[in-house]
Design goal:
- Helix 2 (37-54) packs antiparallel against helix 3.
- By secondary structure, the chain is of the alpha+beta class.
- Strands 1-2-4-3 form a four-stranded antiparallel sheet.
- 39% of the residues lie in helices and 20% in strands.
- The longest helix has 18 residues, at 37-54.
- The protein has helices spanning 8-15, 37-54, 82-94, and strands at residues 22-24, 27-33, 59-62, 66-71.
- A hairpin with a 2-residue loop joins strand 1 and strand 2.
- The chain is globular and about 40 Å long.
- The termini are far apart.
Length: 101
């Protein structure tokens, strides 16, 4: 079943429930700052697990004490879909366990 792109209004409305996430062009993005490189690395591992569970993957960048995500849905022509927002929500749910802000 194809995934449908969301309208700009739908994206804006749903982002209101995802603090820190923004629409940057055709992608949802967020950078988390953590206490250490080890904490950031642990968060990347947990994000990878969530992505596997959802079968939906972001561009994921590990910095010294940061984790940056950028996501859109390739099968929807690179548009933002509900799959992207679900991934953002799941990452947001696990971030506090890593002390991310």
């Amino acid at each position: 079943m194809p995934v449908e792109p969301l309208s700009p209004k739908e994206i804006e409305d749903r982002l209101a429930d995802l603090p820190g996430w923004t629409l940057d062009g055709d992608r949802l993005t967020r950078t988390y700052r953590l206490a250490s490189h080890f904490a950031a690395t642990a968060m990347v591992v947990h994000i990878a697990q969530v992505q596997e569970e959802l079968d939906h993957h972001s561009d994921l960048t590990l910095g010294y004490n940061t984790v940056a995500l950028s996501v859109h849905t390739h099968s929807a022509g690179g548009a933002v879909t509900a799959k992207d927002l679900e991934l953002a929500r799941r990452v947001g749910d696990l971030a506090p366990a890593h002390g991310a802000h």
